[in-house]
Amino acid sequence: MKIFFHFSVIGFSNTYLIGNTGGGDAILIDPGHMDIELLKLIEENNFYIKHILFTHRHPSHTEGLRTLMKIYDSDIYANTPFIMDFKVKTLSDGSSITLSEIPVSAMLIPGHSSDSLVYKIQDALFTGDVLMSGKIGSTTSSLSRSLLIRSIHEKILPLNDKTLIFPGHGAPTTLCVEKKINPILKPK
User: Model's pTM, two decimal places?
Assistant: First the structure.
């Protein structure tokens, strides 16, 4: 399995391309913006976007969908029935699916948004705006913040310290590093 990273200045967001060595059907996570660089990354690695996963439906993670659907015949997965006008295969907390021969599990971690999913693929977590290097996602209330923190502590912190964290914004990190530097995750 290969993981490719694409950063877009529009929305300052990260998109991740995941596929098997040698190309073929692939997974795209959070296509916030579809540009020529992302298309080249996909095509030059002989991938076809068969599956699109969304961590949540905020525009900085979804704006590239309309263009992608003009190029690829993709299945869309998220924790909401529609993104834009496109029907979604809804995933919920604990969902496990295999996409392009790659096992994917989903964890619902509300707080930043009610539909926030974190995807676990092998030893990698695609966290969207739930968990980023040195911080957690923004929230609209103290209740949402408490819910986000509790969900991170219950579902993410028990994972292996070597787990890679691929956030929706900012640099990748590891769970071990986050436990040491992220003030929200330090033991009380």
Answer: 0.94
137: closest CA among 154, 151, 158, 123? 151
Task: Write down the residue that tokens 């990273």 correspond to.
Answer: 5
CATH architecture for the domain at 2-181: 4-Layer Sandwich (3.60)
Ranges of each domain in the chain = 2-181
- For residue range 85-97, what is the model confidence (pLDDT) as tens digits? 999 999 999 999 9
- Cβ atoms 128, 55 nearer than 8 A: yes
Helix (H/G/I), strand (E/B), else coil: 174:
strand
Q: What is the DSSP letter of 136?
A: E
Q: Cα separations (Å) of 146 from 81, 111, 125?
A: 26, 8, 21
Angle 25-28-29 (CA atoms, 0-180°, nearest 5)? 150
| Closest-CA residue to 79 (of 124, 128, 34, 42) | 128
Q: How does DSSP classify residue 157?
A: T
The amino acid sitting at 161 is D
Cα 3 to its chain centre, rounded Å, is 12
pLDDT in tens, 102-125: 999 999 999 888 889 999 999 999
What span, in angstroms and rounded, lies between the C-alpha atoms of 186 and 52?
33
Instruction: Name the percent of the chain in helix, strand, coil, to the closest 5.
Output: 20, 35, 40
Angle at CA 53, nearest 5°, toward 24 and 102?
45
